[in-house]
Model the fold of this input.
Amino acid sequence: MFELIFILVFAATLLVTGFTMVTVIGATFLAFAVMFILGMVGMVFKLLPWIIVIAVGYWFFKNYVVQSRRY
Done:
């Protein structure tokens, strides 16, 4: 939600300062892309503990559980 508010305020600021509509649209799309990428990176950091737990569980299952079933 913060990203959306930032982009709207950013576009409004550009419009008030007198930039053309083409530069406002371009800057808004660029700001949206940057905030989208940073939001995805933030989501990965937020989910990092669960990703580590899943990776350790997969490693344990692959090395110990499946190996004991083969013999």
Observations:
- The longest helix spans residues 21-70.
- The chain has two helices and no strands.
- Residues 11 and 65 are 55 Å apart (CA to CA).
- Helices lie at 2-17, 21-70.
